[in-house]
Amino acid sequence: MANHLIFEFNTTRYAIAADAVRTIFWLPELAPVQDLPPYFVGLINLHGDVIAIVDLGQRFGHPAKPYRLDQSVILLEQDGYVVGLVADAVHDLLEIAPADTAPYVQLEQDDPSGPASVIGGTLKWQDTVLILLDSIALLRLVMQAPDEPSATTQPTDRFAELTAAQRARLRQRTQQLVSIDAPLGQAGHVYALVRIGNGHYAIALEHVAEFIHLDTCIAIPCCPPHILGCVNLRGAILTVIDLAPQLQGAPLRDYKDIVVLRLDEQRLGLAVHQIIDIQTFEANALSPLTGQAYGHPQCKWMLQLDDGVAGVLDVDALLQQGLLEVNEQV
Fold it and tell me: Is the full-model pTM beyond 0.70?
């Protein structure tokens, strides 16, 4: 099993190995490039590093399209290559076993410079089919210019359809990437790693009171669906929540454990499928996620693991959004 990042571009959904993903951020203003193929759509300054941004659709010969304000950049780094890919949306993290994948059927004659050369297979996911990308082959492909110039024409302004206010937002994003804040916490920050469904998440240990096994959870009437119920914790009633609707779009069941969160003077139970570990991470293991680029606003940071990545749950944001309130009326 290996973690993969699920993203979408030009109506196609892709999966790529999460260990190749360095960070994800909103699409900023792009500095123009010269003497490069048109699929190199610009350069950015990411905290002092100059990164080339690639349009995957153009690399595979599709027509260029104007960019939007709600698009993201997935920064890949592997095998000595670093490049950013424009994405329409970033959906989720998913564990994929090789046995679950099916071969990619190439209907036309193989093209050594085409998309088939970087596709490792396909996988049914939700109501669609995922295209599994070979991250190393993809990075090598996009960084190697074809022998013949591309026939695809590139618009002079990829942001031509944006308003003046939206262009100002792009410039603001660019400035934020140059002077990006240091990751949360200092070196040696401790996180609890958990699994909810197919996603891996990290919780700062300062918010964790204890871990308990989930035996019997009693339903609470007149509560929103993300409230699983309550359990008896040494004589005290502990409310247990299911964050899967916010994190993954649908409620889940078959939870095995509870992370007891410390929220000021209160305690709240977070249902999880597995408590993986408690680990100390250096500050450079954290990468920022802007807005909802990770797929949900509850994660503003991504934690690099040995075998993938985990979204760092923003407990304070959960409180501010009222997701932990249980006083909903029917």
Answer: no
